[in-house]
Structures are given as C-alpha cells and as structure tokens.
C-alpha cells in the first residue's frame, strides 16, 4: 500500500469507469497519467504495457480500482498479456477511491472464447509478482482464467484471488512454473481442474477453497506444500498429487465424486491431520509404486477409507474411522465440524470458516462480504 511505501515507490491506478489511456484532457499528460486515482489509466493492459516499457518500475504497485457499478468491472475482449522482464510489483484490487481495503475487483472474460485465456504469462521473466484481491470470472466463456505458456516463472504469488467458470482449467500451467503460491484463494465451477499445477515445482497452497470444479480441485507437482485447504464437491478427485515430496496438512476432503485425494505412481507424500468425508470413491487413494505416510487422519462415509496399489509403500499412523461428521453450513463455506461430530476431541484440528474469521483464524486478507464492489 502506498501509505506504507518508501518515496522511491510509485503507486499507479487503473479505473475502467473514469480513467484515460491517452494524453487528454490537457491536465492528464503523459508524465502524470496513472499516478493518482483521479488520473488513472483506463485499462489493465495499458498498465501492463507500461511495465514492459519500464514506465512502471521494479517495486512499484498497480491498483485496479473498483468502479461505481459491478457490471462495468473490467470486461475484457482480448486476453491480458504479461510480458515484462524482472519487475517485482504488486498488482492489486482496490476500492473506488483507490484504497486497498480488501475490496475484490472483478475481471470478466465474457468477451473472449473457449480457446482464449483471460490472462496469459508468456515469458519466463515474470517473476516475484504478487496479484491480490482480484476475481477472474471466465463467465463460462473464456478457456482459462490464467494460463502459463512458458517455463521457469518463479515466485509468483496469488493472494485473495478467485478463479471461476473457465471452460477448461481455472489456472493452467502447461509448462514448469516454480515456487508459485496461492494464499486465501478460491477456484470454483471450472470446466476441468480448479488449478492445474502438476507440471510445476515447489508450489505452496494455503487456506484455499476448491469447489464445484468439473475435474480435480487441485493438481500439484514436485515438493508441493498444501495446508489448511478445503476440497469440496469436485467432479473428480479433490486433490491429485503428481510426483514426489508433497506435504499435505490440516485439510478437509469432502463430497468429491472421485477420491478425496489421489497420489499417482510417481508420488511420495506425507499427510498430517487431514479429514476425509463423504467422497464417492476413496478417502485417500495411494497408487501402486508411490510412497505415502499419513499421521492422524480421520475418515467418515467414503466409499472406502483408502485404497492402495499392489507395490506401494503406504503407512498410516493413528488414523480413525469416525461414527459421524457434520459440518456447519457448507453452502456458507463453514467446514468446521459441529460440536456433536465424532471428530471433536479425536485429535483432528477443527477448520476455520472460509471468508470470515473465527477464534482460530484472524481473518487476515480474507475475502470481504460487505464492501460495495464485491464478487461474493
């Protein structure tokens, strides 16, 4: 946020309702435009192009402002392209005054088609960028919310973002992208996986919700870290692990059509404090040839509590099969087991309610339900 940045950091503004990309009016000259909320750029792509030509410098911040009407929030007719080199920038949603207060700004892809992503990263130098407080709504028209088409993007962070209604994957990394992080994000109602990350390395997924995707909720690759996430009502597996070194802890896998979680034959994984409920196939399925160790897991009402291949090495320490698990209202994103659930007191941590704070979660950077410019 500009209020806490040094004097060498410039905050740039984008406003689809009142902004201008040209040099008119006279007081909105090339030197001044974009540098204040009252002289904002008009389009997100124009701001991205200013990163390419280095008008926007390493360390700067771009604020995409909420407009006065949700319906005019950044409908795009061409994909957004990220092609800059080596800029450690923050790209964040802000309220209609240009203040970063948790307002989530919608970018809508209904002007695209099912062969075009909403945002494409097509160079290997888009590193150390943070995207925050943005909702990518493909509107059942655009192919992906985000697509990576080149290898070796490093340290990209998605904070408090949503990826929804893509005809294919919400986020698709068909090439290697390393050290990407998804924190307090949601991927839902996509035509395939919520986030397809299985060809990538060292990803972190923390306090995210994957729900109602037609395919898997999340697919991860080498040495991924998945913590405090919920995988709910996905059309295939909640979580697919493809390759070795993954650690999964404090997650809920509920109501998925396939397995709660599936570990492929090349996977080596460690599981701690996870809850598998109501999955139509297996709670935790470890494929032949993979190695997995699970500590303190609880299972309820899956078709089978687990499944293992013929040559696997699967060890389960202190798992329990519960008599009952009832949650709060899952439609209201409350996956905390109720007090009468047999999981309570069984050593499994209770999970927080998404999109709000509880005694066990301070609500930092959580999606806000009360602001005027909102997608929730």
Large-scale geometry: elongated
User: How many independent structural domains?
Assistant: 2
Evaluate the radius of gyration: 21 Å
Number of helices: 1
Q: Tally of extended strands?
A: 34
Defining key terms:
mainly beta; 1 helix; 2 domains
Would you give an account of this structure?
The protein folds into 2 domains: 164 residues, no CATH class; 153 residues, no CATH class. A 12-stranded parallel β-sheet has the order 1-2-4-7-11-15-18-21-24-27-30-33, with no helix packed on it. It has a 10-stranded parallel β-sheet with strand order 3-6-9-13-17-20-23-26-29-32. The C terminus is likely disordered. The protein has 376 residues and is mainly β. The two termini are 23 Å apart. Strand 1, helix 1 and strand 2 form a beta-alpha-beta unit. The longest helix has 9 residues.
Could you outline the blueprint of secondary structure elements for this entry?
Layout lengths: L10 E4 L29 H9 L8 E5 L14 E3 L7 E5 L10 E4 L10 E3 L8 E3 L1 E4 L8 E3 L4 E2 L2 E3 L2 E3 L6 E3 L3 E2 L2 E3 L2 E3 L6 E7 L2 E3 L2 E3 L6 E5 L2 E3 L2 E3 L6 E3 L2 E6 L2 E3 L6 E3 L4 E5 L2 E3 L4 E5 L4 E5 L2 E3 L3 E5 L4 E5 L2 E2 L55
Parallel strand pairs: 1-2, 2-4, 3-6, 4-7, 5-8, 6-9, 7-11, 8-12, 9-13, 10-14, 11-15, 12-16, 13-17, 15-18, 16-19, 17-20, 18-21, 19-22, 20-23, 21-24, 22-25, 23-26, 24-27, 25-28, 26-29, 27-30, 28-31, 29-32, 30-33, 31-34
């Amino acid at each position: 946020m500009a209020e806490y940045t040094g004097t060498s950091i410039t905050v740039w503004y984008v406003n689809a309702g009142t902004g201008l990309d040209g040099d008119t009016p006279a007081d909105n000259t090339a030197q001044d435009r974009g540098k204040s909320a009252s002289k904002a750029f008009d389009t997100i792509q124009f701001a991205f192009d200013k990163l390419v030509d280095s008008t926007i410098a390493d360390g700067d911040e771009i604020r995409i402002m909420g407009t006065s009407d949700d319906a005019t929030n950044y409908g795009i007719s061409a994909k957004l392209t990220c092609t800059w080199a080596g800029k450690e920038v923050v790209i964040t949603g802000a309220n209609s005054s240009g203040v970063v207060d948790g307002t989530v700004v919608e970018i809508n892809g209904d002007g695209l088609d099912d062969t075009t992503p909403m945002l494409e990263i097509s160079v290997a130098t888009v590193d150390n960028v943070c995207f925050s407080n943005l909702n990518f709504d493909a509107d059942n028209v655009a192919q992906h919310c985000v697509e990576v088409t080149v290898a070796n993007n490093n340290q990209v962070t998605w904070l408090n973002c949503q990826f929804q209604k893509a005809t294919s994957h919400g986020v698709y990394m068909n090439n290697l992208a390393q050290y990407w992080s998804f924190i307090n994000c949601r991927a839902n109602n996509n035509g395939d996986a919520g986030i397809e990350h299985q060809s990538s390395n060292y990803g972190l997924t923390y306090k995210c919700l994957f729900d109602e995707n037609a395919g898997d909720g999340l697919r991860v690759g080498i040495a991924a870290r998945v913590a405090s996430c919920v995988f709910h009502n996905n059309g295939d597996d909640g979580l697919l692990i493809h390759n070795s070194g993954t650690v999964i802890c404090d997650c809920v896998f509920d109501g998925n059509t396939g397995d709660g979680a599936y570990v492929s034959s090349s996977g080596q994984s460690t599981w701690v404090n996870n809850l598998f409920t109501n999955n139509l196939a297996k709670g935790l399925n470890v494929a032949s040839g993979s190695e997995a160790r699970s500590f303190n897991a609880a299972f309820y009402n899956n078709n089978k509590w687990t499944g293992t291949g013929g040559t696997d090495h699967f060890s389960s320490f202190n798992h329990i099969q519960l008599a009952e698990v009832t949650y709060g209202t899952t439609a209201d994103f409350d996956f905390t087991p109720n007090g009468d659930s047999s999981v309570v007191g069984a050593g499994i941590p209770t999970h927080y309610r998404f999109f709000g704070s509880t005694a066990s979660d301070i609500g930092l950077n959580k999606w806000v339900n009360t602001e005027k410019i909102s997608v929730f």
